[in-house]
């Protein structure tokens, strides 16, 4: 029985999201898992063929998805991020892209055997990397801030540039081979490109103005953004093919740099849509391939072309374009290696394969196989190597996952010290310079500023920290921070100190605060004031390893009721903070770190 389109779409969505989960669960490159899933249900077992089954809807669906993904990525391109990396990003996106175009075209002609016309079209297209493949790799590798920013900006900026270079090359070929060439074709190309940029800018400014003036209610903001993105992409693409990507990128960058709070609030919503689209579209594309195309990628000329693109063209374009930009050799090596191709390369090459074949270039028939080979080889090679290579080059935030602690006081300083001694990175963040004095005195990492400040977002590197602990005296602020950063850190990694003791005279307020975002740290009977009092009156941090004979129950019987269980270290190195909602039961081999009575505390309690 042939499945309905609705069933097929449902299957693709489920398998796409499941691929993302498998990749997260087993720490594998998500793109590799999605590609393998698409190949399994498509050409290998023949369950579905989305390109045939969806018919005329297939290309529009892919195009719309790519437009939304690229727009969402460009919303993260704030010009404030360019401090210190503006020059290399500009050089890579311009000079580097041009060098890659020329070298890629030469390689396509001499190695892959393509005609000059087809070689220059595909050479322009293959300068792309793209957010669909770069973003999952950056999440996986946890690179240091500078190389991560460069790869992110390049992936988003060069995506539309690559498509435009391919269009430009095709227009030049058409112009030069025409019996009666007209210069108006070339003029129209540049005019169409400029119009696309202007359209994206004016729509971004207009939408931002409407948000700022309150002309759009909150419940309509996200739907309106999606609709305007589709309008922006479609109008530009109708006027000149492949300029829609340029237009939505310009729109996203415009909105990202207007400083509109509501746009930042919608970012997590669009990130969720982007993840869903990447998952489903990548599965659709790979499932639409046929066995002949897969077999063709093992052609020696195609393999030789792919290897040269990976090991020669990309590194040379990066090394030459970044001369004098201040990048270190290690950064150049990493950026010169990481260049996976993704959805844009597959979709645009499919378009040009048809156009060039219709124009009489028979060699264009291998473009789909050539593109798929480059996508698969780069996705697998870069997906599995980025973590290892970044560690070897000292460009990853290596080590155990750490904790970002908001609020500097005697207790949090003691907590940060205990994490440091256990080889887990931590940083204390506080808007009071005076509060941070104790942290500085103890030699702990600290940052002076508010977590909700835009400056903090751009200057504080949060990548090394998987946990957010809010321990300020303002319990409402703690809950607000937990709610704000919950999408970024995850529900199980966001914590706040208990509000109950502080609000003993107002149980209603405590109940509200306790229900808003974040898990309650340690035990709800310990307020921040209680914890600080313990830290100041002789309670000390101790570490105990559980065994088969000395279980967690035995451990609790030896401890005073006032003992605060801080965190648990599993034999695997996994860190678990004790909380009201903790489901992990400490077992043999686990190390328990607690704040317990020392001699000074016993003396103090005896005097009282």
Automatic annotation (TrEMBL):
<keyword id="KW-1003">Cell membrane</keyword>
<feature type="domain" description="RCK N-terminal">
    <location>
        <begin position="404"/>
        <end position="484"/>
    </location>
</feature>
<keyword id="KW-0812">Transmembrane</keyword>
<feature type="domain" description="Cation/H+ exchanger transmembrane">
    <location>
        <begin position="18"/>
        <end position="391"/>
    </location>
</feature>
<feature type="transmembrane region" description="Helical">
    <location>
        <begin position="333"/>
        <end position="354"/>
    </location>
</feature>
<keyword id="KW-0472">Membrane</keyword>
<dbReference type="InterPro" id="IPR006153">
    <property type="entry name" value="Cation/H_exchanger_TM"/>
</dbReference>
<keyword id="KW-1133">Transmembrane helix</keyword>
<feature type="transmembrane region" description="Helical">
    <location>
        <begin position="31"/>
        <end position="48"/>
    </location>
</feature>
<keyword id="KW-0050">Antiport</keyword>
<feature type="transmembrane region" description="Helical">
    <location>
        <begin position="117"/>
        <end position="138"/>
    </location>
</feature>
<protein>
    <submittedName>
        <fullName>Sodium/hydrogen exchanger</fullName>
    </submittedName>
</protein>
<feature type="transmembrane region" description="Helical">
    <location>
        <begin position="89"/>
        <end position="111"/>
    </location>
</feature>
<feature type="transmembrane region" description="Helical">
    <location>
        <begin position="186"/>
        <end position="207"/>
    </location>
</feature>
<feature type="transmembrane region" description="Helical">
    <location>
        <begin position="219"/>
        <end position="239"/>
    </location>
</feature>
<dbReference type="Pfam" id="PF00999">
    <property type="entry name" value="Na_H_Exchanger"/>
</dbReference>
<feature type="transmembrane region" description="Helical">
    <location>
        <begin position="150"/>
        <end position="174"/>
    </location>
</feature>
<dbReference type="InterPro" id="IPR036291">
    <property type="entry name" value="NAD(P)-bd_dom_sf"/>
</dbReference>
<keyword id="KW-0406">Ion transport</keyword>
<feature type="transmembrane region" description="Helical">
    <location>
        <begin position="245"/>
        <end position="263"/>
    </location>
</feature>
<feature type="transmembrane region" description="Helical">
    <location>
        <begin position="366"/>
        <end position="389"/>
    </location>
</feature>
<dbReference type="InterPro" id="IPR003148">
    <property type="entry name" value="RCK_N"/>
</dbReference>
<dbReference type="InterPro" id="IPR038770">
    <property type="entry name" value="Na+/solute_symporter_sf"/>
</dbReference>
<feature type="transmembrane region" description="Helical">
    <location>
        <begin position="302"/>
        <end position="321"/>
    </location>
</feature>
<feature type="transmembrane region" description="Helical">
    <location>
        <begin position="60"/>
        <end position="77"/>
    </location>
</feature>
<keyword id="KW-0813">Transport</keyword>
<dbReference type="Pfam" id="PF02254">
    <property type="entry name" value="TrkA_N"/>
</dbReference>
<feature type="transmembrane region" description="Helical">
    <location>
        <begin position="275"/>
        <end position="296"/>
    </location>
</feature>
<feature type="transmembrane region" description="Helical">
    <location>
        <begin position="6"/>
        <end position="24"/>
    </location>
</feature>
């Amino acid at each position: 029985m042939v499945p309905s389109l609705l069933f097929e779409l449902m299957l693709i969505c489920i398998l796409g999201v499941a691929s993302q989960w498998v990749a997260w669960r087993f720490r594998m490159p998500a793109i590799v898992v999605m590609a393998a899933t698409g190949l399994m249900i498509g050409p290998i077992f023949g369950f579905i063929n989305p390109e045939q089954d969806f018919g005329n809807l297939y290309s529009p669906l892919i195009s719309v998805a790519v437009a939304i993904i690229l727009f969402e990525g460009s919303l993260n391109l704030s010009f404030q991020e360019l401090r210190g990396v503006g020059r290399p990003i500009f050089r890579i996106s311009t000079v580097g892209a041009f060098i890659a175009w020329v070298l890629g075209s030469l390689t396509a002609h001499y190695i892959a055997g393509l005609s000059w016309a087809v070689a220059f079209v595909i050479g322009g297209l293959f300068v792309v990397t793209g957010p669909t493949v770069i973003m999952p790799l950056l999440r996986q590798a946890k690179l240091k801030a500078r190389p991560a920013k460069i790869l992110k900006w390049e992936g988003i900026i060069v995506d539309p540039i690559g498509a435009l270079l391919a269009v430009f090359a095709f227009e030049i070929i058409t112009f030069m081979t025409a019996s009666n060439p007209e210069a108006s074709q070339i003029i129209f190309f540049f005019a169409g490109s400029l119009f696309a940029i202007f359209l994206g800018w004016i729509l971004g400014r207009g939408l931002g103005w409407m948000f700022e003036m309150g002309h759009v209610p909150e419940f309509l903001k996200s739907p309106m953004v999606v609709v305007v993105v589709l309008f922006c992409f479609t109008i530009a693409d109708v006027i000149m093919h492949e300029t829609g990507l340029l237009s939505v990128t310009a729109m996203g960058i415009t909105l990202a740099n207007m400083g509109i709070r509501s746009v930042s609030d919608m970012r997590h919503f669009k990130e969720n849509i982007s993840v869903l689209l990447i998952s489903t579209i990548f599965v659709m594309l790979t499932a639409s391939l046929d066995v002949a195309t897969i077999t063709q990628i093992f052609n020696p000329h195609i393999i030789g072309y792919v290897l040269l693109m990976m090991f020669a063209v990309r590194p040379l374009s990066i090394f030459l374009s970044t001369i004098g930009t201040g990048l270190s050799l290690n950064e150049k090596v990493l950026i010169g290696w990481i260049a996976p191709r993704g959805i844009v390369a597959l979709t645009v090459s499919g378009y040009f394969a048809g156009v060039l074949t219709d124009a009489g270039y028979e060699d264009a028939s291998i473009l789909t196989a050539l593109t798929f080979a480059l996508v698969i080889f780069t996705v697998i090679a870069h997906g599995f190597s980025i973590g290892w290579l970044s560690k070897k080059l000292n460009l990853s935030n290596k080590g155990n996952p750490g904790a970002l602690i908001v609020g500097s006081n005697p207790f949090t300083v003691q907590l940060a010290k205990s994490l440091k001694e256990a080889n887990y990175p931590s940083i204390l963040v506080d808007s009071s310079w005076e509060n941070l004095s104790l942290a500085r005195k103890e030699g702990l990492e600290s940052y002076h500023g508010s977590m909700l400040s835009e400056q903090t977002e751009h200057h504080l590197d949060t990548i090394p920290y998987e946990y957010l602990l809010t321990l300020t005296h303002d319990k409402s602020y703690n809950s607000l921070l937990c709610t704000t950063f919950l999408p970024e850190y995850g529900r199980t990694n966001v914590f706040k100190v208990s509000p109950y003791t502080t609000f003993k005279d107002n149980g209603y307020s405590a109940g509200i605060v306790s229900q808003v975002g974040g898990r309650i740290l340690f035990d709800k009977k310990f307020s921040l004031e209680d914890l600080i009092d313990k830290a100041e009156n002789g309670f000390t941090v101790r570490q105990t390893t559980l065994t088969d004979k000395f279980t967690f129950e035995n451990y609790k019987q030896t401890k005073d009721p006032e003992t605060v269980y801080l965190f648990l270290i599993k034999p695997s190195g996994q860190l678990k903070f004790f909380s009201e909602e903790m489901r992990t039961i400490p077992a043999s081999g686990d190390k328990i770190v607690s704040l317990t009575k020392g001699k000074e505390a016993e003396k103090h309690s005896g005097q009282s």
